[in-house]
């Protein structure tokens, strides 16, 4: 497949995002130039094949700044000055702050267009980078009064080359959105996981997929997230304040579950959660309803592959799948999400083939 991206791309910062961008573009034969203040980090990214080191005469068409949030504006400004013919973007998770800082500094923001790929991993650095990190993920472009639609089209081409889905959203609206879908969830997950530090072993031994789901992102890099949360604090604060009010209502209901209205209060919270989950887009958008089948598989090589192969032979398309293990038991638990109309037939067919459906 040929690349939509034209010209040389310079990536400044070879952590998870920068190296992943380099890997994806390099696989399409784009000339990717890498730079980083850390020689060892840069060397790793080059060794992994994310691009080459900068050289005399480099003339990038696009510069992608992938550095920590607290230095984004400084690095973007330096790149704008160093490469006067290049379009400069950054991939920081907050967009209004860097734009305001660049305006205040008198930087040539007519060549700057911020962006944010909604992708990541709990681990950072070039070692964790993947060429397919952005596959199917939204990539927000944050146009402003001095940017052009032609510049947005250039970055959309880059995002599409990486398998992402470009979305145009002004900086302020972007920051409002990530406060509720990314930044507040990070804090909630971390607060919940922190309760486990002093939990007894017999409690953590009972942990299942629900706890893993709600604490997965608690393994993220604290140093990076302190910067992200600080940069978007004014938008995260009202989200958490509303959450605190909801939690206060739950606490009141639990303090006296037999009191008038207590059961209704708890039910309303859980029902609202159902409604909220229904708004999270799946692979077919937000309107698809699914049924879950739980299949028990022997914990030995080849069983998951055989299960998926047989589901394919039955002509059933999976909407989602989740795998966990039963503590102390040699079995795996596979949760299959399918559309309701095929669930009954799939359950019967799997049982007929010898699978244990819980």
TrEMBL record:
Classification via Pfam families: PDH_C (PF20463), PDH_N (PF02153)
Annotated Prephenate/arogenate dehydrogenase domain residues: 7-288
Keyword terms, alphabetized: Amino-acid biosynthesis, Aromatic amino acid biosynthesis, NAD, Oxidoreductase, Tyrosine biosynthesis
Pathway(s) the chain acts in: Amino-acid biosynthesis; L-tyrosine biosynthesis; (4-hydroxyphenyl)pyruvate from prephenate (NAD(+) route): step 1/1
Domain ACT intervals: 292-358
Catalytic activity: prephenate + NAD(+) = 3-(4-hydroxyphenyl)pyruvate + CO2 + NADH
Keyword hit for Ribonucleoprotein: no
EC numbers on record: 1.3.1.12
Family in the record: Belongs to the prephenate/arogenate dehydrogenase family.
NCBIfam families in the record: PRK06545.2-3 (NF005111), PRK06545.2-4 (NF005112)
Name of the protein this chain belongs to: Prephenate dehydrogenase
Lineage of producing organism: Bacteria, Bacillati, Actinomycetota, Actinomycetes, Micrococcales
